[in-house]
Structures are given as structure tokens and as C-alpha cells.
Amino acid sequence: MTTPDIFLSYNREDQAVAARFAEAFAAEGLNIWWDTALRSGEAYDEVTEAALRAAKAVVVLWSPHSVVSRWVRAEATIADRCKTLVPVTIEPCERPIMFELTQTAELSHWTGDAGDRAWQALLDDVRGFVGREAPAAPINKAPEPVPAKPGERGGAPSLAVLPFTNRSGLAEDEVFAFGMVEDLIDALSQGVNVRVISSSSTARFRSGALPDVEAMGRELGVRYLLEGNVRRSGSDLRVTAQLVEAASGEIVWTQKFDRPLAELAALQEDLIGEVAAHLDAKVYRMEMERALKKPGDHTAWECTMRAFAAIRQLNGESVRRAIEEAAHAVAIAPDYGLAHALLADASAIAYMFLSSDNPAEVARIRHHIDHALALDAESAAVLGHVAGALNYTGQAAEGLRRARRAIAISPGYGLAHQIAGIASEMLGQPEAALAHLADFRRIEPHSPYQHYALAWQADCYLQLGDWAAAEDAFDSCLALNPDANYAYCQKAMVVHHFGRIDEARQLMIETRRREPSATLALWELRTIRWHARGPARDEMLTHLRALWAATEGLA
Fold this sequence. Notes:
Blueprint: E1 6-9, H1 15-27, E2 32-33, H2 46-54, E3 57-62, H3 70-81, E4 85-89, E5 105-106, H4 117-130, E6 158-161, E7 165-166, H5 171-189, E8 195-196, H6 213-220, E9 224-233, E10 236-245, E11 250-260, H7 264-293, H8 300-311, H9 316-332, H10 337-354, H11 359-376, H12 380-392, H13 396-409, H14 414-426, H15 430-443, H16 450-463, H17 467-480, H18 485-497, H19 501-514, H20 520-530, H21 535-550
């Protein structure tokens, strides 16, 4: 019998799913052994046990059916003893207690997409057991990328992190440089703004001089390449990273990070977070700019990026543009869950900021929410925007639940943390809200939505009765975005609380000048929607009404 790369352990009730995994592994050139016959109550036959013990990797598919199967449990136990166990969850379940602490791949959502990040991560793990790298075509035979055509969905940009160069020449720095790449890939993979390919695909470039950048980008199928090096300088370690656009070879971002060498492990964790945060924000902004500059024939993904760019300003005109772009994305790709989620989110922002109570509009937004979830309920990006739409239409409890699910799927997705914070604030849980907002600010320190998080942070302080901290947060919000009209209005109320009447009136005059069409009734409704029930909200409404009366005709 040929020694198998993979032994596939499963319950017969899951045979259709097992077949999907078997076919996908075979398509990757891996030799797989699996028993397609229905299992009986008999003990292992010699062939089955021989294959189990000979396999380089034993992939166990955990499901409600397999966790109660003594045959699958026995196969997993033998694999664990042989150090060949690769467990995978294919349906939510409680694994046998002895395997609860074993790192398990989560592929309950997987339907066979070869580009799925979780599937690619599983492939990398299996190849590590088997001792094979991903197959690669020669550089000179790689096909040219096909330009996007009208009507295509498109998708998040892809990036390859190349092996970092150790310029110190010390063995411990070689280990550090290798670890930087692995941890960077892991950190970037937890977000949703960029697709990162596995390190096994770039390992062959571990040499001094890099080959032709454009050809390498074509071979790897990526838009961006990240390269870097580590070098000691006295008692410090310097990490230099630069982002290269593969098609042009242009260096679009470079950064140096210097840290003392005293605690190398903490240094690596610190640097990973900082590099990943800079890089994710840079790619996000470049994709927005790229989509905005493109004259026409936009893909659905490019329309969503144009919508993201518009939403940043959070004023009436920009939100309307965001709705138009998201609707265009839906028209291009009606089965694109993110487009429906973003249309729901943009429409809900417009509802919260610009509309009176309207059950029919809430129902329309809910239709897009449900459609997005029906199309892609396990996408962190879809869940994040769905959660935002739920928050802004008075459904914060469900919004918090969806945001938490997005965080569970993609812990590095900053927007989900922000949305969870907003939901918690709306539900009258200011301490929990502040924790989520702090996570967002830590994960995405360069996000264009930092000003918005600061405004919600201020609202949490108001719930806690800390008006001084709220004023500081509103000041920070306005420093980042001087056009944030909602912050002028709310700061006016806070200043009025402190008895600085003239300053409060000037802020309210500025509020009314910036948005002359907004009425007192609309500002009252916004205040009620923003703030959880409680003394702070009632006092804010009192200040709002007094300032409105005092500035009538002055804007």
C-alpha cells in the first residue's frame, strides 16, 4: 500500500462533507486515504489501521455526529499519540474533552472555496506535517493578470510578506526575522482589508537579492509585496519594512521601527502590532484612493471602497454618495453579501443622522441586512456592517451579537470592535463599550474612523458622569476631524454643563452654520438615539434646547 499523506477520519453521516475535503486535498496534489464505504460495528481491519498509523497527517472532521463516534474518537486518539493529529471543526459541536485544548481549524463555513483563508491555513498546517510546500509555477510562465471587466465582483487586495533579511548576521536575529514574518502574516490575516498569502508560498525567496518584482507579483498573484530587514544598532534593534506595488515596482510605503533589545519576546509582539496596524491602514487608504481615481468600469469591490471613502465624513452629502456606491455594487453583483451589508449600513447611518422615525425605512434596511446574512453569514466584514446597520436602526442587542461573532471570526477586524462598543453604549453598558472602543483604537490606530470612536467614547464618559473626560474626547475627535458637526453640537452641551455659556453658544452657532437644514427636532432625535436612557441624556436634551433658543437667528 502506498503511504498516504493524509488519513481522513469522519463519521458516515458527514460523508458528503468528507468528500469535499478529500477532493480539495487531492486537487492540491496530496495523497489521501479515506474509507468511502459505510462503517459497520466491526473493529478496524488491518488495512484501515495500517493506513491510519502510516499517514503523515490524520485530519479528523469534528461534528455533532463524529464527537459521539467511538471509531472517530479512537482514530483521533491514535493520531494524537503518533503526533499526526490535524483536527478540523466542520459543524459547531463540543469536542471530546481530551481534545478541547488542541488547536482546531474552524471550517464550519467552508463550502469548497480554494481561496478561503481558513482553508489555506489548514493546507499550510497539513503541508507542514507532510513536508511539502505549495506547488508553484515558474516565474516566466506565469499568466498576465486579467484586467477587471464591468460587472465583476472583485475583492480585497492580496499581499505577500517576503522573508525578512537578517542584516546583523547573528543567529538569534535570524530566528527573530523568521518569526516576524510568521506573526505578521497571522496578524494581517485577522483583518479583512487585505488577503495575505501563506509563508510557504514565499519561502523560496529566502535569499539575498530579490528577483524581478513585477514577475514575482504575477507568480504569487498579489498586488502588494512587503519586504523588510532586521539590524542591531547598539542596544537597539531596528526593523525596516517597505510595501511595494508589484505591477509598477514602486515603493508606496516604508517605515522604520526602533526598540531596545532588553526584552526580545515583548519587542517582537510590540513591533508586530505596530507594523500590522500601519500596513493595514495604508493598504486600506490606497485601495480607497485607487477606487476613487479610477474613471469607470468599477468592480463591486471598488464600489464598496468608494462607499467606505464617502462614509468617513459622516455628513448628509457623503452618506448619500455612500448609499449610491453601495447600491451600484449590489447592481453589479447581486449575490455579493458585503455590498448588501454596506448598503444596509450606509442607509442606517442616513436614517440615524437624517431621518425621523420611519418603520417602513427600518424594514427596507432590514431587508438588506437579512439578504447580506443569507449570502455570507460567516464573513467578518459582512457581520461588522450588518451590526452597524442594526445599531443605527434601534436593534443594538442584535447588533452587539453580530459584532461579537465578527470579532470571533476575525479578532483583528477593528471595525467590529468599534461597532460592539457603539452597541454596548446604546444598551447602557459604558464600561464594556469603552473596552471595545479601546480595542478598536489599539488595533487600528491609523484608521480614518478614529474620530468617530472618540465621539462614542465621549458618550460613554457622559453615561458614567465624567463630563470632563467627555469634553477631552470631543476635543480629540475634532482635532482629527474638524468637520465632525455632531461633535460641535455635543461639545456645546458639555461646555454648557460647566457653565461656560458664551463658549457653548459659539459652538452651537457653529453647529447650526455647518448644517442649516437640521432642526431642533432632528437634533433632539439624534441625541435620544445616541445616548442610552439615563440622567446624562436628559441633561443633554435640556442643554440642547436652551442653546437652541439662545442662538436662534444667529447662525
